[in-house]
Amino acid sequence: MKQTRLGKAGPQTAVIGLGCMGMSGVYGPSDRAESIATIHAALEAGVTLLDTGDFYGMGHNEMLISEALKSAPPSRRDAAILSVKFGGMRDPKGNFIAFDGRPVAVKNALAYTLQRLGVEHIDIYRPARLDANVPVEDTVGAIREMIEAGYVRHVGLSEVGAETIRKAAAVHPVCDLQIEYSLISRGIEEAILPACRELGIGITAYGVLSRGLISGHWNKDAAQSNDWRNNSPRFQQGNVERNLALVDALRKIADAKGASVAQIAIAWVLAQGDDIVPVIGARRRDRLTESLGALDVKLSKEDLAAIESAVPKGAAAGDRYEAVQMAHLDSEKK
């Protein structure tokens, strides 16, 4: 698989990564054996970046990845790049209750992550959100100390704005910013993406299929009761119908290219620059295979223009998160 570097300071990685969050119950029940098989299949296909968070399933996701890595061939296991988000605090019911970016919390969270993953270091360690009560310089400074101690290789960021990115990069080189980016979530194009490119910071794009909304597979009648998308603005009645109309328009382009809707959506993100690595949230091998097929989809200038016409910037109905979560996103501050 084609390789790229995550920013000027980061590691070499395959041009598509695997996001493992969905394997820990966020979108309803998932099959543990199939999840592990999907991680194995991704590694076998040449995918190297595995993305997780210590709060995904309250540690479940890290332990799942650990199990998968231990049973993978040594060459594949050694090639894996572990990207871990930290700081999200949850209660026993799974509700998010706070974010903690204090230096002491950074080191404590890292200690537990190393244990759950069964590794001696984390390749990319990143705060999942900006802690409004802690200067980002302090949070990144703590990660820098862990790099100096040998427990972390690189600093990453997640969902922060251009000003915060600059402050963090002044403390230690940042290899990548993980942030939502897709055909219907293009907010980074105005200020965040230019700032990252100026500083030599890569983008690991999550939500490339907008949590399945523009995958061409999502069916509102098949949603699980414990699927968090039930509360997501873009999946709400009045919004979802308008958004699925965009999918129908995209499907016509996909059919003409002999590709799936998901492959067109992923290929569009890939076409936005070699410094952008889509992180695909496949929970099953068939979805992984489909997503990797996007690498074979070549979009011409005419194709890109047709996609832009079918799904214009700002065409999505509804915010990407609920209002209370949007208010906590540094990346959304103007």
Describe the protein in words.
There is one protein chain. With 334 residues, this protein is of the alpha/beta class. The chain has a single domain, classed as TIM Barrel (Alpha-Beta Barrel). The chain has 12 helices and 12 strands. A hairpin with a 6-residue loop joins strand 1 (3-5) and strand 2 (12-14). The longest helix is centred in the last third of the chain and has 18 residues, at 240-257. 46% of the residues are buried.
Explain the layout of strands and helices.
Layout: E1 3-5, E2 12-14, E3 17-19, H1 32-45, E4 49-53, H2 60-70, H3 74-79, E5 81-86, E6 88-90, E7 96-99, H4 103-117, E8 122-127, H5 136-148, E9 152-158, H6 162-171, E10 174-180, H7 192-199, E11 202-206, H8 240-257, H9 261-270, E12 276-280, H10 285-292, H11 301-310, H12 323-326
Parallel strand pairs: 3-4, 3-12, 4-5, 5-8, 8-9, 9-10, 10-11, 11-12
Antiparallel strand pairs: 1-2, 6-7
